[in-house]
Design brief:
Layout: E1 5-9, H1 32-45, E2 50-53, H2 61-66, H3 76-84, E3 91-97, H4 103-116, E4 121-126, H5 131-136, H6 141-146, H7 148-163, E5 171-174, E6 179-181, E7 191-192, E8 197-198, E9 214-217, H8 221-230, E10 233-235, H9 241-257, E11 266-275, H10 279-291, H11 313-320, H12 335-338, H13 343-356, H14 368-376, E12 381-384, H15 386-398, E13 404-407, H16 414-429, H17 442-446
Bound molecules: flavin mononucleotide.
Keywords: Flavoprotein, FMN, Monooxygenase, Oxidoreductase
EC number: 1.14.-.-
Domain Luciferase-like: 31-401
């Protein structure tokens, strides 16, 4: 029986491209504060391990169609700082991009959130693949992209040295003796690398957790190595359970080869459950969400310039191996037509049937629109009742595919509530998720030890690579 780690990957206007259009959904980023606070309160009552805030250092009209929650949002560090004040136990993980951040500034902000929250802060380090981010920071994208992992390794190393500037007992605060600090226990960072140079020490006390738990999200071999050597949690995109088992084994092998206890590396996958009272109800929600996704053919004179190129009948034709570009998007997909599809096309029909209950031979056959959406909207969706979702979670945990999940909610707040109030109690009933918080800090929730101070103890491999 695996104890699953469960966090909420918070996207205030919903994590599915058309979620903000669903009846009753939150849809105005100017009102995010109330939704963030409400989500945090519901999540903490459900005993989720943490709230997770991704980041994207650019915006544009193209995001409206693909990732609308990225168009305008609260900065992750601001969000976790705000929520630290309205919660007491749940972890709070913010994302920062090492390619465009300053380590001293980030160390200060993150140590501060950890002290303000009683040790509940976490930090997701990404290196960023968004070209516009370079322009937003006065940088050349190719140069930044080329060295982003070398810089990230230095960045993570420096963060730990900055967080450890004050030993745990460096601050004496002895009013009678008039001694405020023990200077022998205040350490400079003194780092001179190829990409970063930091003297230090940091002017914030050591975080409650010593070092914040570090998450890393990525897909490339360099990303896998960075996670294996430097992160406590690896956030990975996986296509199915078999792939997840393989990725987790690969990451743990890399961690072991790097000299760390590979069990300290937790592998987390994002998942987007659509939860209904019945499976048919869940499928009707997924069906309506699919129908609310716009496709190129919705504009008689052609879609806006920023519209995703892959969301069209022309693009679908390529995948199906059959030219459907001249047909109506609402044309029913019958068994006779499916018989002409390529293997990937037939798989797509099965995905649509699983998610929406629409089978080619049924009373409500899928339409070409449904196939365009299934092919162009990337979401690791599970559709069903709370029991169905819990069974899938449990199966992944028992198969050694993941240590936990970052749960995305397609529609806010309805689908987040459905998960927190329906699926979580089912997981607790099955004994794969605790009914109470097991400790005070995010490290306690994640089962991670508090690391030694790097200035006074050798770097334990699980807390980052020792740079030469
Ligand atoms: C599950 C997952 C979540 C991610 N979240 C973010 C994010 O919040 N912000 C970001 O800039 N990049 C994010 N990324 C992108 C990665 O950080 C990285 O930029 C991208 O995977 C390309 O780099 P790579 O090829 O080295 O992985 C995420 C990637 C994955 C797999």
């Amino acid at each position: 029986m695996t104890r699953l780690i469960i966090g909420a990957m918070v996207r205030a206007i919903g994590a599915y491209p058309s979620g903000w259009r669903y009846p009753g959904a939150h849809r105005d980023p100017r009102g995010d504060a109330a939704v963030l606070r409400r989500t945090a309160e519901v999540a903490e009552r459900a005993r989720l391990d943490y709230l997770f805030f991704g980041d994207w250092l650019a915006t544009g009209h193209d995001l409206e169609f693909r990732d609308p929650y990225l168009v305008a949002r609260i900065d992750p560090l601001s969000a976790v700082t705000y929520l630290a004040g309205v919660t007491e136990r749940i972890g709070l993980i913010a994302t920062a991009n090492t390619s465009y951040s300053d380590p001293f500034t980030l160390a200060r902000a993150t140590a501060s959130v950890d002290l303000l929250s009683g040790g509940r802060a976490g930090l997701n380090l990404v290196t960023g693949a968004e070209p516009r981010a370079a322009g937003n920071h006065g940088r050349d994208f190719d140069a930044a992209n080329e060295t982003r992992y070398d810089r990230a390794v230095e960045f993570e190393h420096v963060l730990r040295r900055l967080w450890d500037s004050f030993e745990d007992d460096a601050i004496v605060a002895d009013a009678a003796a008039g001694v405020f600090i023990d200077p022998s226990k205040l350490h400079a960072t003194d780092f001179e690398g190829r990409h970063l140079s930091v003297t230090g020490p940091l002017n914030v006390a050591r975080p409650v957790q010593g070092h914040l738990p570090i998450v890393h999200a990525g897909t490339s071999p360099r990303s896998r190595l960075f996670a294996a050597q430097n992160a406590d949690l690896a956030l990975v995109a996986v296509s199915d359970l078999e792939h997840a088992v393989q990725v987790r084994e690969e990451l743990r092998a890399l961690a072991f080869e790097s000299g760390r206890d590979d069990r300290t590396l937790k592998v987390i996958a994002p998942v987007l459950p659509i939860v209904g009272e019945t499976r048919a109800h869940a499928q009707s929600i997924a069906d309506e969400l699919s129908e609310l996704v716009q496709i190129a053919e919705d504009w008689p004179d052609g879609p806006p310039a920023a519209f995703p190129a892959n969301r069209s009948l022309a693009q679908l034709s390529t995948l199906l191996g059959v030219d459907v570009s001249g047909l109506s998007p609402d044309r029913a997909v019958t068994p006779a037509i499916v018989a002409e599809f390529s293997a990937p096309g037939q798989e797509l029909v099965e995905i649509v049937a699983e998610r929406t209950g629409r089978g080619p031979a049924g009373e409500r056959p899928p339409t070409l629109r449904h196939l365009v959406v299934a092919a162009s909207v990337n979401a690791s969706m599970i559709v069903g009742t709370a029991e169905d979702i819990a069974t899938e979670f449990e199966a992944w945990g028992d198969a050694g595919a993941v240590d936990g999940f970052n749960v995305l909610s397609a529609i806010q707040p309805a689908q987040f509530d459905a998960f927190a109030l329906g699926v979580v109690p089912e997981l607790q009933r099955r004994g794969v998720f605790p009914t109470e918080y097991e400790g005070e800090t995010l490290r306690d929730h994640l089962g991670l030890a508090r690391p030694e101070n790097v200035h006074v103890a050798p770097l334990v491999a699980s807390s980052g690579t020792a740079l030469a």
